[in-house]
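Reviewers asked in the last cycle whether our approach scales beyond single polypeptides. To address this, we selected a multi-component target totalling 509 residues and predicted its structure end to end. The input consisted of the following lines:
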Amino acid sequence: MASTSQCIASLARLSIATATRRPTPSIIPKLLLPSVVTPSFVRHASGSGSGGMRKRAPKKKKTYKAFRSYDQSDLEQYSLCDAMRYLRAFEVGQPPHIIKYEVHVKLKAQKNGPVVRNRIRFPFAVKSDTRIGVICPEDSPMMEEARQLGAVAVGEESLFESIRAGNFPFNKLICHTDSKEALKKANVGKLLGPKGLMPSERHGTITSNLKATIGEMIGSDEYRERDGVVRMAIGQLGFSPQMLADNLKAVMETIKRDMDGIIEDGHPKSLDEVVLSTTHGPAFSLNGKFNPTDEKIQPQDLQSAM
Amino acid sequence: MVGVIRRMHHLKDILALRTGPGAAILPENVSRIHIEFCHRMNGGHMGPRKFWQENLPKIKFWNPAVPIIVNRLEILDGPAKMTIYFRDNQKSAPSTQSTIQLNSSSTGTSPAPVPADGERTVVVDMKARHSTEILSDFLALTSAVPVKATPQEDIEMRELEDLKRRGEIDRAETRKTLEAERREKARLALAMNEAASIKAAAT
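The resulting structure, written as structure tokens, was:
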């Protein structure tokens, strides 16, 4: 239709006398024309026109190479103290050393390739529930040393007995090299293995340096990227805003360093979003600022006992 | 992670804790609050628990500097008490640092502390009382000033309610179509089954 009206318009421009003339329809009746020439106005479902429905191949689901990244123009972001104020309100009346602040660092990353994964030592220790058991020869100086370093269960045969009885007072177990043979003979692998507690040299849990191993276990946390997000606990609810900020800074620095290391391998990753939440609380996207927006609230107000 | 808009709708719904029963600013002389009740609700501990879950976050949001300690007892038939600590205005306020800092506990290890020098206490019995009663008692005793929602917040609330209503309608419609589809599918499967059995019987 558009072409005819265009045609008419151009004709009108040429001369008014011929403007009313329409293109003459063909004199030959449509029936007599060979079928090939006939302009077909009927549309068929299948291109060939042979009739019948042809089954289409099932639509392939679109796959993306990178994890999805959203437009953040509608995202409300909060300063650290504002987010803490809300979260402390949500967690009111909860034991402050058990409830943890969590951070979720979303990365712009490809689905394949290496992931960000590392260990971090926080300026302020987060974990409050590390209970370490140490297998070492009974009545040895190592036993006393382990006790002093904060181990909850120490011993050799006495510890194996309690393990066989189904009593696990620890959630991390290390073994001194002197007790390695005793551990092998004790036949407790079936009990410890499923819990991931069995000491092994590969994991660095059979050691001769108890101090270094226990220090590493208490003070450091592991993190890894899953589905393009690094999630980890970065503080206890009782922390002050400054303490939390220090821990957060430490995490962000190590993650950035990890990302830089991966970029060299040709797998670019960049920071997308940083979200703060708690064990029971909602999640707040952070805008990188520290101070509260309400001028009546000071950062030191957010460190009262919970 | 979930899409941004959906997240924001959900967050706005949650952040209604800025307004509502319990959103009130406590006067300067309230130094701390201690609340004690049992884990089990039988024996009149439902009111205190609801007060903790529904009103206390709002109080905490508007008074972040006031320590609010909740001590939940594991015994079956314990007390349910709220202790409000007031500091005397005449005397120099006892600094919160000097008093022993008690933390909330879920195992009953934080009983109400003895009032410090220059502090007086008021004890409210919460047992077998509704949370609204407890709240009105609390607000009256502390003479707290309720916080009213700003016009902006009112508009946001109304928008959220609209959204919920529309969502409910949409959900009903979707459910209807889905159920019709499922019914159709089931009927087809039944017919196919019958046809197959007839075929099997014929041969």
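Chain A is about 25% helix and 20% strand. We regard this as preliminary and will revisit it once experimental data from Aim 1 are available.
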